[in-house]
Amino acid sequence: MFHIPDPTISTKHQPNLRMARFNGTETLVKRFAAHEVGDIRERLEASGIDPKLLDDFEKRAKTLMVRAIHQSPDELREDVDVIAKRMSRSTLSGSRRADIEDRVSRQLMSGVSRVHDKAMPADPKDPFQAAPAREINVTPEYA
Question: What ranges in 47-137 are assigned the alpha helix state H?
Fold first, then answer.
């Protein structure tokens, strides 16, 4: 199967990204991300977040989940924080703003973890993949 590369992401200095495209991992992540972001959107809609903000969130979250394949946990956390702050900007009260930021961050981090576990399961025979690539603590309320 021939895979057409995404022109928006350069692979010149990213051999892992080239390999992910070659073996179809990125395609799997995109597919799982679409479902996961849809589920997160439904949960956030139920908490009363503006639908216009959720449209923007949906696009950014899908992109984040694909990029997360090649990011360190710190880079991922920074990107999640940017999206969470963007979502909470429209809220006037400070406590509500903090609640929305917290909820969005937790939902995104657990979503990224679930998508990557589905798309890239660890190979038990490979000693480098035996442990989970990323451990994210999520409370059951947001899981």
Answer: 51-67, 73-88, 94-119
Q: pLDDT digit string (tens) for 37-57?
A: 888 888 888 887 778 888 888
In this structure, are residues 36 and 65 in contact, taking their beta carbons and an 8 Å threshold?
yes
Burial class (CB in 10 A: 0-12, 13-18, 19+), 92: exposed
Dump pLDDT digits (tens) for 78-106: 888 888 888 877 665 677 788 888 888 88
Length of the chain counted residue by residue: 143
Q: How many CB atoms are closer than 10 A to CB 19?
A: 12
Structure tokens at 4: 């057409």
> Taking the CA of residue 76 as centre, how many other CA atoms within 13 Å lie in the half-sphere pointing to its CB?
22
Separation CA 68–CA 45 (nearest Å)? 24
Which residues make Cβ contacts (< 8 Å) with residue 57, sequence separation at least 6?
Answer: 41, 44, 83, 86, 87, 104
